[in-house]
Task: structure prediction
Amino acid sequence: MTDRKAQLAANLAQVEERITSACAAVGRKREEVTLIVVTKTYPASDVRMLHELGVRHVAENRDQDAAPKATACADLSLTWHFVGQLQTNKVRSVTSYADVVQSVDRIKLVTALSAAAVRAERELGCLIQVALDAESGERGERGGVAPDGIEELAAAVDAAEGLRLDGLMTVAPLAGPFAGRQRAAFDRLMEFATRLRAGHPAATMVSAGMSADLEDAVAAGATHVRVGTAVLGVRPGLG
Ligand SMILES: *Cc1c(COP(=O)(O)O)cnc(C)c1O
Result:
C-alpha cells in the first residue's frame, strides 16, 4: 500500500468507528447511515484509492473540479453527489456525471435540471437544500431554501420529468438561532423531513453532518453524512 492509501485507510477506519459508535449510542443500525466522502479539492487518484478501500459514494461542490475527476473515474462504480451551490449554466455538465444533486434550492434550478436530465436520458436524484437560518422567501448564504419554501420545491421536483425527489439536505448554519447548535439544527431538519415524507413517501434521504458534527447528525436521524476533512485531510485553500 502507498503511504497515501494507508493514510486514507486509517482515516476511513476512524470515521467508520465514529459512525458505528454514534449509531450504537442511539440504537440505530449501522446500515441506516451511508457515508459520502467529500473529495473536493483532492485528485482523482484519491477517489480511485477510496474506491479500492470500499467507498461507493463521493461528493463534489464545484463543477470545474468535479467534471474532469468524474471522467477520470468513469470506470469505477461510484455514486456521485453534487453538494455545492449550482449555477444554471453548469447544470448540463453536472447532469452528465452526478447521480444526486443535493443542493436544489430554487425553481429555476429544478427547471434547468429537468431539461438537462431529459436531454441526457438520465434520472437525477434531487435533495432540497434547506437553509435553517433563512427567512421566508429567502435563500441562505451557503445556499438552500428557507423552510417554508420546501414544499413548493418538492412539488416542482415531483412534477418534473427526469427528476426524482429523494429528500432533504442541510449544512449546519453559522449564523442565526442555530449557530453552534448542530444537534438542534439537525433535529429541526428531521421535523421537516418527516413532514415531507407524509406527502412524498419515497423522499427518505436526510443528508446532514460533516467531519465536525457527524455524531449530531446520526443522533438526529440522518441517513447520509458528508465527510471530507476527516477522511482526506485539511483542504489547502478554498473548498
Ligand atoms: C465540504 C463539504 C462537506 C464536508 O465538510 P468537512 O468538514 O470537510 O467534512 C460537507 N458538505 C458540504 C456541502 C460541503 O461543501
Q: What stands out?
A: Residues 41 and 238 are 8 Å apart (CA to CA). The chain has one domain: 3-232. The radius of gyration is 17 Å.
